Amino acid sequence: MTVLGARDVGMEWDEWACKTRAAAGQLTIRTDVALYPVSPFLGRTVGLIASPPCQAWSMAGKRLGLIDQPLVHQAVTDLAQGRDTREKILAACRDERSLLAAEPMRYLHALNTVGQPEWVAMEEVPHVLPLWRQYAAILRSWGFSVWTGTLNAADYGVPQSRRRAILLASRTRTVEPPPPTHARDAEPESLFGPGRARWVSMAEALGWGATDRPVPTVCAGGGPGGGPEPFPSGSRKTLTDARQRGAWKPQPSGSGVFLKSRHANAGQGEQTGREESRTAGAPRPADAVEAQRWSWSLRSNNQANATIRAVNEPAGTLFFGHRANECTWVAEPMSDDIGAAPAPDPIRITAQEAGVLQTFPADYPWQGNKGQVFSQVGNAVPPRLAAHLLAPYLGKTLTPDDFTLAA
């Protein structure tokens, strides 16, 4: 594939992630990165992007990586000096995935012997930042300019407040973090130019219009300039009834945004279901007034401390992998006059919606069943954030036209 005009070769172990990359036209080697030799890349590598698996470190898992962290630091120290002690250290790790965070140093040490790479970009969950600082000290001793820190994806137009530990390094330029393009609140224009735009909300990214009361049964048209609201909450029967009453008619293919319709109890492991659509300008069905009684939010998982965000805000960090990490749309009453009316059932987020909230195109060719796609989405770096991180090192200047949200 091309990333901002550069050819890349990916290394990935997961079968379905490899199939997705192939469907997207990305060159991928399916392998265990810890076993693959570095020699094929010597003399032909300009940049190194490393995003080790986060499961050992993430708050969504058991976080055994934090216990293993001293061992990983030791492995990095040894690898930077050309000593491969991984086998011995791996035997002492509580989670074998922890040591994958040391793998980039194996590649960096070998590449550095031939004066490569020119630049490095690394990403992980915030708890890995101390390890990135260790990498930074080593890279500086090799002549790199390095920056490490934690960035919020929402500050770069991602409709998700995903915080990640970042390392950027370059042999050829002074490294700085990319300037934020968005902020929690929109900023006014000043003598120095236009201010930052407001964070992108889930409703805006999903095409639900400029309203704080969209309903996630199907996708509505509209955008930042406004538009009709979606159909009321419920099963496909609501949409079917609206068609039969003549309140809504499908528009020509290609004229609207398509999202999956689903039942509230649809299983995560099911294959993607049939599609329903609604286009910008389509009238709401007669019973849509009932939907005005509820506001919708996205709950990030089933745990007690789950992040819950209203649809007119960015999502919390999306992570998947097991049933406790299911994201669901939940309804809350808009006022106290609803009385005893039952709230609509929670509705599981679709894989396509999750991908859009990571800034993948709505038609991105994900491969596998819903569970496999959710896992890929949760493990991915938001493409829009990646573009901001990599553009300076690829000689690119980003413009608003370089980004197209799925809406």
TrEMBL record:
Active-site residues, Swiss-Prot/TrEMBL: C54
Segments of this protein annotated with the region Disordered: 220-289
Keyword vocabulary terms for this entry: Methyltransferase, Restriction system, S-adenosyl-L-methionine, Transferase
GO molecular function, one term: DNA (cytosine-5-)-methyltransferase activity
One Pfam family of this chain: DNA_methylase
UniProt-listed Gene3D superfamilies: DNA Methylase, subunit A, domain 2, Vaccinia Virus protein VP39
UniProt protein name: DNA (cytosine-5-)-methyltransferase
